[in-house]
Specification:
The chain has about 280 residues and is an alpha/beta fold. It is about 40% helix and about 15% strand.
């Protein structure tokens, strides 16, 4: 609600087209879910929700509605892929639960199903899509996403994340089976200056070299200085800068909400992202 209110209060709010995700009764997301997650895990989440809920791990809670909401989040990401490919313009998927920690056999870190990996595999089935890039700027490494895509030469994965920090993965030495993984562990206190340098010298060349037909952004906003779960020192307006770097690669971008736990900073960061998509200016 904080994000929605902030967007509606922006001076450009009338330019935003709001859409609800396709109901799962009208879109069968299961074939795409099964490409990424085991049937045993999918069934386990459903059964846990049907029993009234419980815990996958100490951080990851399943409520009675978690299964249906997580499926709806997947549908929203697939809608987003369809929309970006149809229009050639950025789309923001405002959906949770997040996904980038979810692995094939189990969820973790608040994540149930790996929306990014599902969306990437789905996109590769669409006409004219030969390569998908994933940029993960959440403050935590997307261990699930990397594991699920690093064996696919048509998917590139790049992550900037605080280290040391949960989940303790994402070493710079990890490059994927096809040199398609690039990790940047960042020390606590890192600022937009550190991010600028990485984007200009490393990230843009890496992702551009893959010639992606679609860029998926794991858009976590927990790297702000105000966020209680980490110690990176970005400001909300800095996400506008990161978005402009992404737009140098392509306008075919799907941003999907990940982390962000200070509501004010979260909302302002999302606004900065959308504003940069609407009004491109030099960085």
């Amino acid at each position: 609600m904080a994000i929605k209110n902030a967007i509606k209060a922006a001076p450009w709010a009338e330019q935003i087209e709001w859409r609800s995700p396709t109901p799962v009764e009208k879109r069968d997301v299961m074939p795409y879910l099964q490409q990424v997650h085991s049937q045993l895990y999918i069934d386990g989440v459903r059964e846990l929700a049907n029993r009234g809920g419980g815990y996958i791990d100490s951080d990851t809670v399943v409520s009675p509605r978690t299964y249906e909401v997580a499926l709806l989040a997947v549908s929203a990401w697939l809608d987003g892929v369809d929309g970006v490919l149809a229009t050639g313009e950025p789309i923001f998927v405002l959906a949770r639960p997040p996904g980038h920690h979810a692995r094939r056999e189990i969820g973790m870190g608040f994540c149930i199903f790996n929306n990014e990996a599902i969306a990437a595999r789905y996109a590769l089935e669409q006409p004219g899509v030969d390569c998908v890039a994933i940029l993960d700027w959440d403050v935590h490494h997307g261990n699930g996403t990397q594991t699920l895509v690093q064996d696919c030469p048509q998917i590139a994965y790049c992550s900037l994340h605080q280290s040391p920090l949960f989940p303790g993965t994402g070493k710079a030495s990890e490059r994927g089976l096809y040199n398609n993984v690039l990790n940047f562990p960042l020390p606590p206190g890192s600022t937009i200056s550190d991010y600028r340098s990485l984007f200009e010298q490393k990230i843009i060349p890496f992702l551009t070299n893959f010639h992606p037909d679609l860029l998926l952004v794991s858009a976590g906003y927990d790297a702000t200085a105000a966020d209680p779960l980490a110690s990176i020192a970005l400001q909300p307006e800095d996400y506008g800068i990161l978005t402009k770097y992404c737009l140098q690669i392509t306008r075919r971008i799907l941003f999907g909400l990940e982390g962000g736990y200070d509501l004010d900073s979260l909302a302002r960061s999302v606004v900065a992202t959308i504003e940069s998509c609407l009004f491109e200016r030099k960085i």
